[in-house]
Structure formats: C-alpha cells, structure tokens
TrEMBL record:
Entry keywords, A to Z: ATP-binding, Nucleotide-binding
UniProt-recorded name of the protein: AAA family ATPase
InterPro entries documented for this protein: ATPase_dyneun-rel_AAA, CbbQ/NirQ/NorQ/GpvN, CbbQ_C, P-loop_NTPase
Family: Belongs to the CbbQ/NirQ/NorQ/GpvN family.
Pfam families linked: AAA_5, CbbQ_C
Domain ATPase dynein-related AAA: 42-176
Organism: Halomonas litopenaei
Length: 275
C-alpha cells in the first residue's frame, strides 16, 4: 500500500464498508497501524478505559481482512493460557492450541487487552515474537513456530490506572511501536455518541459537556473519568425512552463510584447540567 493510499485511509476518504465496525479516528492512528502491520511490527496501544482501544483493533482487523484473536487479560492468565496445553480427550491426551498459538499458526491479529493484568510469565513468552525472530517456542511440544507475514501482535493497557507494580517493564515496552489514544475532542465525541446510540446530535452535546465536567474530577473525587463507552450507554438508554436523569444515574453515576458522598457530588453536577 502506498503512502498516498495510507493517507486517504487515515482521512476516511475511502468508501465505507458495512462489514467494518465504526471507528472515528482522532489522529493518524489508522495509518500508523497499517504501516506497523505491513512492516511486521508489534503494536502497543495506551489510553484510558473506554476510549476506544478495543473498537479500534476490531476496526483495523476488519479493514485489513484479518482474523482477530482477542484475549482479555487478568490476574490468573498464564503463558499456557495463551500458548496451549495438553488436555484429556477420550482417555488420551492431546495438545490444544491457545489463542496466541492459533494466531501464529493461521495468521491474523492477536490482541491482548490490558496486558499488564496478566501474570509476568505472559510477557516473557511474547518477547521472541516482538523482535526480528518473530518466533513462538512451544516447550511442551518442542515446536518453534515462525509467525507468518500476516500475523500481528497488538497489546493494550491503561497507564493512568495501573498500580506501580502493574506496569510494563521498559525492556518490554521498547519491543513495540506505540500509539497513545485518548478521549476525542468534543465535536468528534458528539459525532461518535450520536452515531452509536441514534440519539440526536443536540442531545448528545449535553452529554459530552457533562463528561468534560466529570473528567475534570479525575484524581480528586474520581479514580477514572467517564468514558466514551459510558456516554454511548447513557445516550442509548435515553434514545430508548428512559428519562435523562434516570439514564445518567444508571450509566454515568453508579459505574463511577460506590462512595455515597462522591455519588452525591456527581449527581449535583448532572442535575446542574440537565435540570
């Protein structure tokens, strides 16, 4: 793909296909993702919860026509969960590939969401895939799988949320090219919320203005600001006929905190916005 073609893609001047999940770019992330894929480079996405990291990966997988293997990382996720293990089948033991191994064998994107939540041995198994070797050694089977040209490793995490003990080591981060994603500007966010929920643009503007006020409370009363995802949920409830204050309470207040005093403060902001 030429540079001019990538530029057209980044600006969304190419025809919109119905089979591609909606994603509104906020910068040059589409072009960078395509360059990384074609240069066989692993990619790290950084950004707050609900800013669209997973939707972006789904969009790009469909855009590039690639299978997508998504893994939601958690405290108990081990390297074996990714690579595979021997399982009992009909009285015999048979090897069963994990999602990472399937992606390496078959091609496609393997996406590890919130990779820092996984156990430390997970990042170790990724290292041979993130340099020029692009290998996945399977100690249990004795195989050394070489990733095909259409394989891509993508990981994501929220650097503002993670505890100091849950972060990527510099030696791991420097194996990836990285994109920092954030919540879009107000006009773009209004477009996204309106498109996803079906609510009128005018009513979505009030929700986005409210989100800006709530995000300003991050680090004071709130650990996290309201996400674009929650705005879409709220707008969808309103579009379905729920009263605005009830929708805001269910989608914007309760998910953000369990502290009664904090919830009261947020409710005052919501009431001041919508009356």
């Amino acid at each position: 793909m030429t540079q001019s073609t990538l530029s057209r893609c980044a600006l969304h001047q190419d025809p919109v296909r119905d089979d591609i999940p909606f994603y509104q770019p906020t910068g040059q992330e589409v072009a960078l993702f395509e360059h990384a894929y074609r240069q066989r480079l692993p990619l790290l996405l950084k950004g707050p919860t609900g800013c669209g990291k997973t939707r972006f990966v789904r969009h790009m997988a469909a855009r590039l026509g690639l299978p997508l293997h998504t893994v939601a990382c958690h405290d108990d996720l081990t390297a074996s969960d990714l690579t595979g293990r021997y399982l009992l089948k009909g009285g015999d033991t048979a090897w069963s590939d994990g999602p990472l191994t399937r992606a390496v064998r078959e091609g496609g994107i393997c996406y590890l969401d919130e990779v820092v939540e996984a156990r430390k041995d997970v990042t170790v198994v990724l290292h041979p895939l993130t340099d020029d070797r692009r290998l996945l050694p399977l100690e249990r089977t004795g195989e050394r799988l070489e990733a095909p040209d259409d394989f891509m490793l993508v990981v994501s995490y929220n650097p503002g949320y993670q505890h100091i003990l849950k972060t990527l080591k510099p030696s791991t981060r420097q194996r990836f090219v990285a994109i920092s994603l954030d919540f879009p500007d107000a006009d773009t966010e209004v477009d996204i919320v309106a498109h996803e929920s079906g609510l009128s643009r005018g009513r979505c503007e009030a929700l986005v203005n409210l989100a800006a006020r709530l995000r300003a409370m991050k680090g004071q009363d709130l650990e996290e600001g309201v996400s674009t995802r929650l705005l879409i949920y709220c707008a969808s409830l309103i579009q379905a006929g729920m009263p605005v204050l009830d929708a805001a309470r269910a989608a914007l207040l309760e998910p953000l905190s369990d502290d009664p005093d904090v919830l009261k403060g947020i409710e005052d902001v919501v009431t001041a916005t919508f009356g």
